[in-house]
Amino acid sequence: MKNIDLDKPHKFFFETLGNQARWDIIHLLQKKSHRVTDIAKELDYEQSLVSHHLKRLGACGFVTFTENGNERIYNLNKETIEPIITLMEKHINKFCKKLCCKT
Predict the structure, then answer these.
(1) pLDDT by residue (tens digit) across 37-86?
(2) Is the distance from CB of 39 to CB of 21 less than 8 angstroms?
(3) What are phi and psi of 71, to 5 degrees?
(4) 37-41: long-range pairs with CB below 8 Å, 24+
(5) Domain annotation for the chain: domains and CATH numbers
(6) Which of 31, 63, 85, 91 could, after both became Cys, cross-link 57 (CB 3.0–4.6 A)?
(7) Residue closest to 37 by CA, chosen among 67, 76, 45
(8) SS3 string of the chain?
(9) What is the pTM of this model?
């Protein structure tokens, strides 16, 4: 993972959200916890790609995991990220889909 500019943590935060694969993983984890293999299968992504994105999501505190034997079970950060995503979706549905993203 590239070095994080500690003077610009907001940039790292929003770049993390700005990737479609990570956004898909976040939405999947909103529904329930998943193993890497389940995420890859559900989203039709390569497992290595999912692992790469989970590393970034974990580094930014978007996801946590619990260990179950040799497996990790990934969860969305319910305290801070879930409310942010819910609010973002509300904003997107109210404004972006109607105003700034017209086709």
Answers:
(1) 999 999 999 999 999 999 999 999 999 999 999 999 999 999 999 999 99
(2) no
(3) -105, 155
(4) 39/74
(5) 9-77 (1.10.10.10)
(6) 63
(7) 45
(8) CCCCCCCCHHHHHHHHHCCHHHHHHHHHHHHCCEEHHHHHHHHCCCHHHHHHHHHHHHHCCCEEEEEECCEEEEEECCCCHHHHHHHHHHHHHHHHHHHHCCC
(9) 0.87
Pull the structure tokens for residue 9: 């943590």
What's the token pair of residue 81?
């990220």
69 alpha carbon, distance to own chain's centre = 24
In the block, which residue shows the tokens 């404004």?
95
Enumerate residues 6+ apart whose C-beta is below 8 A from 99. none
